[in-house]
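4.2 Preliminary Data

To establish feasibility before requesting continued support, the project team ran the inverse folding procedure on a target of 177 residues. The structure was first converted into the token representation described in Section 3, and no sequence information of any kind was made available to the design step. The complete token record follows.
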């Protein structure tokens, strides 16, 4: 009987936006993704962009950063995201979900603002997360292939891809400092 090793679990980093302390959905999503075969590094509630960025640097193999929000203030909470991506500290696509704006009416302009902040994908139903992650991965947008050297994430090659579902394409940096 030949011995085989299980394929590596796909890693995602999960957390709740900085001003949001809602953790029930976060815990349910983490459990759901683990049941779907993902490794989940769950940063929990009230996670600022800088903490997400540190997790990405610490885990260069992460294929996505998942940010939830229920209080509707994610636009303010993600103000530093574009710079974190530009600097290479966030090297993978950012997927957001939850109640993403204050009030009952949701607008396309709210989604556009999130894309302008550096969000790569908006998911309105957590059950679609595995499909969204598979689409990002198959489009070549999953992550910058890298490794850690002296405590820094260093890319072996940058992966850039095509837009998925009309959303802006993501292109990662060659080096994360």
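Position-by-position output of the design step:
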């Amino acid at each position: 009987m030949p011995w085989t090793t299980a394929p590596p679990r796909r890693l995602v980093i999960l957390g709740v936006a900085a001003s949001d302390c809602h953790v029930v959905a976060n815990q349910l999503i983490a459990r759901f993704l683990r049941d779907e075969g993902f490794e989940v590094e769950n940063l929990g509630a009230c996670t600022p962009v800088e903490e997400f960025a540190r997790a990405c640097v610490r885990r260069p193999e992460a294929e996505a950063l998942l940010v939830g929000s229920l209080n509707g203030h994610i636009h303010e909470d993600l103000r530093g995201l574009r710079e974190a991506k530009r600097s290479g500290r966030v090297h993978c696509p950012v997927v957001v979900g939850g109640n993403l704006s204050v009030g009952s009416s949701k607008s396309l302009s709210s989604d556009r603002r999130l894309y302008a902040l550096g969000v790569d994908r908006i998911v309105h139903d957590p059950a679609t997360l595995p499909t969204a992650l598979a689409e990002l991965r198959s489009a070549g947008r999953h992550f910058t292939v890298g490794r850690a050297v002296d405590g820094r994430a260093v890319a072996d090659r940058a992966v850039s891809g095509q837009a998925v579902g009309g959303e802006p394409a993501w292109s990662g940096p060659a080096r994360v400092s």
